[in-house]
Specification:
The protein is mainly alpha-helical and about 500 residues long. The chain has 20 helices and 6 strands.
């Protein structure tokens, strides 16, 4: 007969776990739990026990003994846990430690009205909540870097590209502001996902709740959740908290990878737009001239990893019955954790890379001047000055550019005579555009200044957009402060109530 110290969760099976099962499954899983889940799970044990006492499900005396012992185990920390890899999980170790100290009759009451199912998903949500908060912090920091740099480069003229060809004139500030808007949407998605992650499944028990009169709202408050996952079955079997956040992280990393790709290309001799600081570059072992922006390649690789991790999380849930299954319940946890690590690493790196990068503003302006990026404005000028349709103006400018390219000329070599000749060939009459109008159309800064439409790169419009973005960022930081404060306040309240319940002589 088992003693109180030997009570385990193996009554239904006769044999101990196989050595290979322990080696390949139990041991790695337990090591991860001890590393990331010990504190969240101890908080759940404390909150659940307090609730059992408040509801009269466990007597005050028994609850006091459980809470005092849990507090001691928590204070000792995960390194003090006597590891036995034949036990399945962290919960089994904590319950064994509890029972060894106060016996099965008392310590065994902690699990009343609860299952490892709701304990596991609640632990996972607390772990995921903490990771999401860290990721939000990293995004907010990166947004601030983007906005500061965009404000600095409102007047830094550069060619905008479509299909990797010179398209229209824009500014570096405009580019960075656009990317900030993308990251702001990533933040919106991340905050929305956080709101669904931070819901309490505790009290669902195995899947249909319990006949004990649990107070799920109390544990929600004590653990700092924003609300309940109300339906017990939903709380246990659904893992869209993992898959949703994984998809958000994958999209964030996809966007960050596109920025890394642009910086990588801009760093080439052919572009010459940017040079990364030495501290972010590597050298060649054989070619002494090399300065490699290899960190950008690492970032793109991290993005690939994060996308793969997201697919792993989805694959763990796909083709799993809508019921409690181990692959769905735990299969996505580690991949998502790795994806979040990759995202935080990338955001930290880019937050250092961007401000320290030297942007070759003269080179950017020169290419914006000679590379025919002003041709849309030239066609628009013809429409405004000569009253022609845009398609006719487009034909004239297109033919003129073709002639210039054939003759090895650049945009600044265009003349009114060349425009007249193209117009005669196409429509039988000269265009008659003035020298002054042509000069304005070919001036890159004039191309910027005139684009005052909402969302355009003109200085006043950029100032408005950046001010609005900075205000939104400030509000997002305030929301993050509230989120972190709520979690911290709940932890302090839980600690106070445990200490008050145990009493000074415990």
């Amino acid at each position: 007969m088992a003693t109180q110290d030997e009570v385990q969760l193996r009554e239904r099976v006769r044999e101990q776990p196989a050595d290979d099962l322990v080696r390949h499954i139990n041991a790695p899983s337990l090591e991860r739990e001890l590393r990331v889940a010990f504190e969240p799970q101890m908080q759940i044990h404390l909150a659940h026990t307090l609730m059992l006492a408040r509801q009269g499900i466990v007597s005050p005396e028994h609850a006091r003994a459980i809470l005092a012992t849990l507090a001691a185990i928590r204070a000792d920390g995960p390194t003090a846990i006597e590891v036995d890899y034949s036990l399945e999980d962290l919960y089994s170790h904590v319950e064994r430690a509890l029972i060894r100290r106060i016996g099965a009759d008392v310590g065994g009451r902690m699990h009343t009205g609860r299952s490892r199912n709701d304990l596991g998903v609640t632990t996972a949500r607390l772990v995921l909540r903490a990771r999401a908060l860290d990721l939000i912090d990293a995004v907010l920091t990166f947004q601030a870097v983007l906005l500061d740099l965009a404000s600095e480069h409102v007047a830094t003229v550069m060619p905008g590209l479509t299909h990797s060809q010179h398209a229209q004139v824009m500014t570096l500030g405009y580019y960075l502001a656009a990317f900030q808007d993308v990251i702001a949407r990533d933040l919106d998605r991340l905050e929305a996902a956080y709101g669904r992650v931070n819901r309490n499944p505790l009290g669902a028990a195995a899947l249909t709740t319990t006949g004990f009169p649990l107070d799920r709202e109390l544990t929600t408050e004590l653990l700092g959740f924003d609300g309940l996952v109300e339906n017990g079955y939903d709380a246990i079997v659904a893992r869209d908290d993992v898959t949703e956040l994984a998809s958000v992280v994958a999209l964030l990393m996809t966007n960050l990878s596109r920025l890394a790709e642009d910086l990588w290309i801009w760093s080439t001799l052919e572009f010459g737009f940017a040079e990364l600081a030495d501290r972010y570059c590597s050298v060649s072992s054989i070619m002494p001239q090399k300065k490699n922006p290899g960190v950008l390649e690492k970032i793109k690789a991290l993005a690939a990893q994060a996308i793969g991790d997201a697919m792993a999380a989805f694959a763990a849930v796909k083709n799993v019955s809508f019921s409690e299954c181990g692959d769905a319940q735990t299969g996505g946890n580690a991949p998502l954790d790795e994806a979040i690590d990759a995202a935080i690493t990338t955001l930290d790196l880019l937050s250092g890379i961007l401000p320290s990068t030297t942007f070759r503003t003269d080179r950017m302006r020169y290419l914006a001047t000679v590379g025919f990026a002003t041709m849309t404005e030239l066609a628009d000028t013809i429409v405004r000055e000569k009253g022609l349709s845009f398609r006719v103006a487009h034909n004239i400018v297109g033919k003129t550019v073709q002639r210039a390219v054939d003759e090895g000329k650049t945009a600044i070599d265009l003349t009114v005579e060349m425009l007249d000749e193209s117009s005669r060939e196409l429509f039988g009459r000269p265009l008659g555009l003035s020298e002054q109008a042509l000069a304005r159309a070919l001036d890159p800064w004039e191309n910027i200044r005139i684009r005052r439409v909402t969302g355009g790169p003109a200085p006043d419009e950029m100032s408005r957009m950046l001010s609005s973005a900075k205000l939104r960022l400030a509000r997002a930081k305030d929301r993050q402060t509230v989120r972190r404060a709520k979690v911290a306040d709940a932890a302090r309240r839980l600690q106070r109530e445990v200490e008050a319940f145990i009493g000074p002589n415990a």
